[in-house]
Amino acid sequence: MGFFVGYVLGFALGMGLIVGFARFQNIRSKHRTDLAQVIAAFARMTLQDLRKLFPDQPYPAWVVFSEKQKLTWLNHHLDKIWPYVDQAASDIIRNAVEPILEQYRSSIMSSLKFSKLTLGTVAPQFTGVSIIEGDSDEIIMELELQWDGNPNIVLDIKTRVGVPLPIQVKNIGFTGVFRLIFKPLVDEFPCFGAICYSLRQKKSLDFTLKVVGGDVSSIPGISDALEETIRNAVEDFTWPVRQIIPILPGDYSYLELKPVGTLEVKLIEAKALTNKDIIGKSDPFVELFIRPLRHRIQTSKTINNQTNPIWNEHFEFVVEDFSTQHLTIRVYDNEGIQTSEFIGCAQLPLTELEPGKVKDVWLKLVKDLDIQRDQKKRGQVHLEILYYPLNGESELYNPFDPDFRLTLVEKAFKHANDTDPSKSASPMKRDVIIRGVLSVTVISAENLPATDLFGKSDPFVELTMKKSDQKNKTRVVTDTLNPEWNQTFEFVVEDGLHELLILEVYDHDTFGKEKMGRCIMTLTRAILEQEFRDSFPIDGTESGRLNLRLKWTPQTIIRD
């Protein structure tokens, strides 16, 4: 009898829990549905709906003035005047764009000109306008534009073998942001001296190429070459490039595009790159650029059969707008005569750099910089970056500049003697050789991984100068995960700007050694700061760190 009663009570309690849980889930689901409906209703609210929620006056500023204003009125008027804009703008666009297309024309084409150019019947739509904070003597306006047009554009192409090809550009889809700068502000109507305009951001650009009376894909190389030419021409119009239209008489040359600094980039290494080869490992190389123009993209050497390559290469870039430009890297697997296979890309805004300070950074590779939904691990790239502004009054020093170690008097004397035009016109570039003595004190390590059976390790550090192959190592400290060495080693360095210091942490075993991790660093920071102490993460460990003190004693040589 007791068993039967217990069985009934247990069954009733179980059913009660099930019913209660089901009811809870239904209530929770209904609450989420109601909340989603409320959010959707808010999303559909217009400016007039928002005004109904508030008293007649005054409206809050965010109701009347949003960050980006709609331009329905402008689009309405643009639709009306578009036929006239088409006729007026076609010749202007032809004269402005043809020289740019010719500049980026592929070597397989001997000429590239417009034979037809009309903008079609579909006007672009301005989707928003915003005012950007700038200097006190300027007004900066950005207009968002979308155009799915039906233009009639035909390009006359002549190949190197003399074959003429009329190619039509169809199905153009473009979305971007244009920037207008009214500068300087003056007390004479219309109250500004000039207008600068530029494509601030190219969000998307799609088009189709078609040979008139044929298929462009049937002609090897022409389609890719022409598409690259068009995209380079668009990029050459993208900010910080700007066009200047004088409104009032005056000299506006200071508004033109000019270099504002140099970016020194050390491509050190990469780790855990995706293996793209079926047999063996990937053969990675890197493309680096600030502006993705053909003559401005720099390429590293290829490291064969390696997913953890060490490059130790130096690149220099011209910076034209520190506040908006980025350093972009793309990693590929070299497939020989076949098209290289994409591994991943990464980007670093220059605003994250402090002028004159070396930034050591690991960049995680992603599939796409705009839509980062890919969760696949593609590896990381290790860079060392130094931004140096081109300001004559700046007290910052660039070690890659041949005049880095000269005093003001020595610079004046040097430039006074560099008056021979035959010498100044020489294209030969001088390399800077910084020779000196590097003193490395290995102080201690923290949080090393346990490699022995009893949860301890017997760590020691091997130090290697990669280029000169000089080596040293610390003593072994037994039974610890937080060893202290306080040992100092000195290396005679012949070329400090192109040398690498590699510190590898090992666990000492009776019959050999087991690698825990490593640190790789350039000597740029030591050359700039002369002496510093810092803690460095040990790559290959979860949280291990190596505490070091570096001191540099220089002797500079300039080699022609």
Summed up:
The protein has 560 residues and is an alpha+beta fold. It has helices spanning 2-43, 47-52, 61-64, 72-103, 222-235, 408-417, 421-424, 524-529, and strands at residues 109-118, 125-132, 139-148, 152-159, 164-185, 192-211, 243-246, 261-271, 284-289, 298-299, 310-319, 326-333, 341-349, 359-364, 380-389, 431-446, 459-465, 470-473, 484-493, 500-509, 512-522, 531-537, 545-559.
Give an overview of the whole structure.
With 560 residues, this protein is of the alpha+beta class. The protein has eight helices and 23 strands. It has helices spanning 2-43, 47-52, 61-64, 72-103, 222-235, 408-417, 421-424, 524-529; strands spanning 109-118, 125-132, 139-148, 152-159, 164-185, 192-211, 243-246, 261-271, 284-289, 298-299, 310-319, 326-333, 341-349, 359-364, 380-389, 431-446, 459-465, 470-473, 484-493, 500-509, 512-522, 531-537, 545-559. The strands form five sheets. Strands 1, 2, 3, 4, 5, 6 and 7 form a seven-stranded antiparallel sheet that branches. A four-stranded antiparallel sheet has the order 11-8-15-14, with no helix packed on it. A four-stranded antiparallel sheet has the order 10-9-12-13, with no helix packed on it. Strand 22 and strand 23 form a beta hairpin.
